[in-house]
Structure formats: C-alpha cells, structure tokens
Amino acid sequence: MKQLCYASCSTSFPEELLEDLRNILSEARDFNHRHAVTGVLYYADGYFFQCLEGEDPVLELLLEKLRKDSRHREIMIYGLKKIDQAHFTDWSMKYVSRSSHALQYLHKQGQDKFRPFALNSDQVEAFIAHLYDAQPDEAA
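Structure for BLUF domain-containing protein, as requested:
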C-alpha cells in the first residue's frame, strides 16, 4: 500500500467554492469507494491539501485525474511512499475544515494562513499526523 500527498491552489471563485468542495468530495468518495482508496482533504486559505492511500496503479490514475482537474493548479507532490497500514480506513474521503486543531499546529509553525508549499518534509509529516486525528467536518 502507498500514500500520496499533495497540495494545490484552488481556482474557484469565492461564490463557487462551497459547491466545488462538495463536488470534489462527492466525486472522490465515489471513486475511492469503488477503488479501495482512503484519504483526507483539507482546505483553507485558497489551498487544498490531500493525502490518499491505496495501491500504486490507482494512485497513479488519480494523479493523472488531478492534473487534468481545472478546479486547482500548481500541484505540489510531497511524494509517494510505502506505508504498512492505512490511516484513513473509515473514510473514502475524510474532510477536515480550516477550524480543526490542525490549524493550531500550523500556527505553531509560524503560519497565520495555510501555506502548504512553505512546509518542509518534517512539517508535512506532522501535519498529516494531525489530520489523522482531526474530527471530520460534515458541512461540505
């Protein structure tokens, strides 16, 4: 099993954002359920951060779909790594909102706004660990 994490900039206008988030989550949950992928999506301050877990071929397919998705740009891949166990087994796609305790971690890292491209590899790992434990947001 592998884990793929990435960040990207949203291209959604503010008035479209909530609908786009709902569509992204709906599409992800459907695809992931059918392909045994689990994961989490975090959105704040114009940036997406997503961590996906599954088998190599499916994650490669998802990466190609993401690159073609017009709802985001400037995709930064944090790597594809082997993991011993899935961390989001209860979620085809967990959604964590900006107001979660993960934001508190970012504040401690000196970020007053979410800027995932500024995180180093250790900070990315720590942020992911906060997302494992974060309560999901059902609003989106």
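The longest helix spans residues 14-34.
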